[in-house]
Amino acid sequence: MHKPTELIEYETMLLGRHSLATRRSRREGGLLERSAYILLSRIRIEGPMSIRQLSEAFDLDPSTLNRQTSAMLRDGLVERIPDPAGGIARKFRITAEGERRLDSERGQITAGIDKIMSEWTAEEVEAFASFLQRFNTDIERLAGSPWPRP
């Protein structure tokens, strides 16, 4: 018999390999890079963010974020703007195209989850969502890096 935490480890490993959305190709403009999806989600919730703020939020080296944000700039997903608060650093703001692509991707993922969970009761879906949120917030609490939620 395996410990429940061993089962959770194995199942989260498997979850990481699955796509939850019906995917379109990048050439069709439908599929965001995973890093772009996560960065856009954070910028949407937080508002414009500098490389330093993104580095702190994601615990990533600024050089990694410079590569990721450069690709997002090139794809028209974000734009660089002066700090609205008057600071020196320029910040990244999500563009209308970034909003559209993020909404499209999120809609595809939600539709995929709806399909996967179509035989679950409403109570089971709510319980799973609650446990998943608690799991994530406990990870964030231990890491000292809470993720803002809408």
TrEMBL record:
List the SMART domains.
HTH_MARR
Span of domain HTH marR-type: 1-137
The domain of life for this entry's organism is: Bacteria
**Pfam families given for it?**
MarR
Q: Which InterPro entries match?
A: HTH_MarR-typ, WH-like_DNA-bd_sf, WH_DNA-bd_sf
- Spell out the molecular function terms from Gene Ontology: DNA binding; DNA-binding transcription factor activity
* UniProt KW keywords: DNA-binding
In the UniProt record, does the keyword Transcription regulation occur? no
- What is the designated name of this protein? DNA-binding MarR family transcriptional regulator
